[in-house]
Amino acid sequence: MTWGFGNIKGIGKKGIGKGIGNVRGVSGAVAGAVTQRASAARRRSTSLLPFLVAASLAGLAAYNHVRARQAVRRALRGRLMHVGAVRLHVLDEGTGMPLVLLHGNGSAAEDFVASGIIDEASSRYRMLAFDRPGFGASSRPRGAAWTPAAQADLINAALQQLGIEHYLVLGHSFGASIALECALRHPESVAGVVVVSGYYFPKPHPALALASLPAVPILGTIARYTVLPLLARKAWPLVLEKMFRPAPIGRRFAASLQELSVAPETLRSVAAESALLIAASAMVPDYGRISVPVGILAGAEDDVIPAVEQAELLKAAIPGAHLEVVPLTGHMVQQTAPDAVLAMIDRIETVRRAS
User: Fold this and answer.
1) Residues 6+ apart with CB under 8 A from 149
2) 216-221, long-range: CB < 8 A, 24+ apart
3) Mean pLDDT of 117-135
4) In the predicted model, what is the mean pLDDT of the chain?
């Protein structure tokens, strides 16, 4: 019986050795196959990554485009007209002496609706609030430098098309520079000017260079249509707080202007006009040539630009200009203190009539 056990032991050892070898061989083969499959999966994932990124960006662009179109449709309460290659949206309400309203960078004609200025003044003035090129429902054709001078010529041509020969013009922020250019370039048509929170003597600043980056071709375009609108929506409350402080934020302005202000085409125009301010620092117009009555308004607590300093410099450059610094008011004077703006408009109209 010992043989029997011996044979059994011998056979067991050999069998077990062979079995273990076979198991190791199978395990190695399985591990190798798994590794190959994992490597192949990683290669497939890597090769698909550009397509996934492109699809995500395309989805974001479509989403932002739809929201921008919806915002423009909601803001279309005026008329659309074409002046050359430019489509202009203008609100035309009221009767009396024509008063042109030009909004600031990143805004729209809706600004003057939200402030109540159009409703308040339309009983004695014909109010014409334009969406400037690239803002609201107005187009901004590429290939042209939409400087304040170029926009002044465009607005004057639009008014001629509407049969308006003489008008007052009010501009806020960047729009203030355009209003002054209207008076400089079209003195036969402009009867008086009111400027609010303007940057009349701009200086180069790193913030302007940073703000102009979305106008850069290709990369800027991709950013404007994808991630920038999302970031701009997130930053909107902070932007409003800076523009309005120390006054409370205008709720109607905040609600009606947000989607218009973060639209891809608006972001392009904002960046382009920021770049124009850098260039404008080297060629300030000769404001002393303006001969019509000029009213200047500045918020005493403006945290966007040195508005009081700029207003005082402009008053010194234009003989006879009327200046009012509005206390407890920031950059959005027309929103926070519309009565001060309306009073200055009436003051300039009274001076115009007297002269």
Assistant:
1) 181, 185
2) 220/268, 220/271, 221/268
3) 97
4) 85
